[in-house]
TrEMBL record:
Secretion signal span: none
A Gene Ontology molecular function term of the record: heme binding
Protein name, entry field: Phosphodiesterase
Ranges for region Disordered: 193-214, 246-275
Compositionally skewed regions (Low complexity) per UniProt: 246-263
InterPro entries, per the entry: Catalase_sf
Amino acid sequence: MGGLLRLVRAAGAALARLRGARAFHPAGLVLEATLEVLPQAGRPWGVAFLDRAGRYGVTVRWSRAAGLPSPLPDALGLALRVIDGAGSGRPFDLLLTSSGTGRVTRHLPVLRTDAVGGAYSTLTSYRFPDRDRVIAAIPAGDGGHGRGLPVSLPDLARALAERPPAVFRLCAAAPHEPWRPFGLLTVTGASPAGTGPLTATGASPAGTGPVEGSRGTGTGPLAFDPYGACLPDLAPGPRLRRWREAAYAGSRRARGAAAPPGAGRRGGSDGHVEA
């Protein structure tokens, strides 16, 4: 296992050196969203956040995992930071990747040419009180295939600014269960104050604000930590943790970047995931 992790770390470092940026999710679109946790008419989840109806602000980072140039398909990342989700002043992070919804495909990344052309899942299971379940964001409407959005980040920024918000049903399911919704995520074209959307080319679409991580903006790429910034009664399982940490640690080392504040704290990851 140690040898494989060293190979993953080395691969992350090599890719970061090759592209002169972080190895995975090198560019993304930072947007505002709202999460409405739905009242549970049936049996409760046993998770305080899910069993209490409410409305939360969310910071979203939509990204291309491999950073492949458009119009090539790519696995897409949908990283969520739920403001005050774990209590006042305590957000929680959720990382979702374009995937299928079947028993096997919910654990596998899927390349996309349409940003709302299918589901996004956590790939790894989360530990609910009664059993492990995968969490997914499924586009609302049109049989789960949405209304079509481009995967080029500049084009996606423009489309979200000009069209109605993108809406996802947040669901969870164990392998033998149907997907059961617990919330609605509504993603708008607005950017959190001072952050702005970023593009794959390093230039902002007209009128959309500064580029995340661009020179002179004072903003750097957002880092998410689904292990350290999780709900106390809903934590991700260990399935992908070591591999993610090894790949991103290699990426940071190659760029001379420090681990974000809080890395290595009890219950947190060795380094935040750079989704």
